[in-house]
Design brief:
single chain, alpha+beta, 2 helices, 5 strands
């Protein structure tokens, strides 16, 4: 029960913090789908939170019938196809992973 409350609180907080980011993902209803690419920070049955390469976090509700790759987990890099209504219609694991190797230290 306590974990459910924590999850609900975190989800609500993320929704409040990223409310205006949804507008960025979809300019107007009926617009062509857009693709968000980035790291999955949260994935539930109702929403996905993506952090892009610039560090922007976007919360996108999953549309009815959205196709979500079952292999995706938090921390993976993915592509989220967003409809003009601002809902995710597909979430797929990205084939291009960023280079995470650390740079050698200068002596």
């Amino acid at each position: 029960m306590r974990r459910s409350v924590s999850t609900l609180a975190l989800t609500s907080l993320l929704a409040l913090l990223t409310f205006f980011s949804i507008a960025k993902a979809a300019d107007s209803p009926g617009a062509n789908p857009q693709v968000l690419r980035g790291e999955i920070l949260m994935l539930t049955m109702d929403l996905v939170v993506v952090k892009d390469a610039q560090g922007s976090t976007t919360l996108v509700p999953l549309g009815k019938g959205a196709k979500v790759d079952q292999a995706i987990k938090v921390g993976d890099h993915a592509e989220v196809r967003v409809t003009g209504a601002g809902e995710a219609e597909a979430v797929t694991k990205s084939s291009a992973q960023p280079n995470r190797q650390s740079q050698p230290k200068a002596d």
